[in-house]
Amino acid sequence: MDAQLTDRLIDIRRQIHAQPELGYEEEHTSTLVKQELDLLGIDYISNIAGTGVIASLTRGHGPCVAIRADMDALPMQEETGLPFASKVSGKMHACGHDLHTTMLIGAATLLKQTDFQGTIKLLFQPSEEGPSTDPEKKSGARRFVEAGHLDDVQAALGLHVDPSMPVGQISYAIGPALACTGFFTIEVKGRAAHAGASPQLGIDAVVIASQLIQAAQTIISRHTPPMETAVLSFTKINGGVAPNVIADRVVLEGTIRALNLDVYEEVIDRLQKLGEGLGLIHQAAIIFDLYFSIPSVLNNGDVHGKLQRSLKGVFGQQNALEKIPLLAGEDFCYYSRKVPSMFYLLGAQDPTSPGYYLHHPKVIFNEQCIPLGASFLAKGAVELLEGFR
Fold first, then answer.
1. Same domain, yes or no, for 155 and 48?
2. Rounded to two decimals, what is the model's pTM?
3. pLDDT in tens, 237-260
């Protein structure tokens, strides 16, 4: 990629970074994407899942492949001090989706100048981080798939920036690569009473919640096979009103992760049954709500094999690294369970940064990863067309 295009893409990235938008609110970002596609003369459809855009490039006859970028930001205050830092209070591109969107625009630019046979779909997707404003609790990728936009696709390719890995490297895992992920709340409803004079008249939600947290530790340590990877974490607890009142309500929040879908569902089932059992013992109401849940990303070895020329050409064979799976969640899972897919992690480490990771208010990404990501998406899409012909 030439320096002029790289500089233009960096400018686009900074525009997106300064105007972060949460899931299903990506109006400004979507408009910018459409403006860039209009300049390139690339056809697209818009308002997909609200703010999504799907562009298509077709040359002759052949298979169809998809390359994807997510567009949404996170509800957090940026603390990087960058000159192009977020101008929107309480919102930040702390997961690098501004870079992903920019890379896909870059890939579109490169593909416009490339000969190939077939169709390449460019998926500019809203709401990867979680369907916070969607009453049906569906992420952008799930909505794209359910609307039929991958029905004619033979393979999908995606990537995610990794600020812990040097620029110039790319990593992957075959099979389950990113975790089944769920976020839950557990509401414990007891009965208030005077904590000193008549505690026997209450149903202590604090005690019940603490028992639930302690007992839940055995779900992983005693009920999950030791060779399976799974995590159950309670991350938030809130309850009580005064030091002399038995709490009648406590709310717990947390996350469940596993690579194996069966193990993931077993952890959910045991946690729910544990709550039901404690509710019976204490005559309390315990309400379990798994309000967000996605399966694991499945990386396809055959698709990876078809991308070897692109990986070597952009990164060099020594810089395409096979690593262990991560227990992070990613709604690219819906594409990977619809069509054969590969999802890679792209090195974006900033040498001046002290090492903050994704979702940190001070995380800084190295913009020199942009031309590499754009080139790989473009070359990879063409190589997949050739591989599936």
1. yes
2. 0.94
3. 999 999 999 999 999 999 999 999
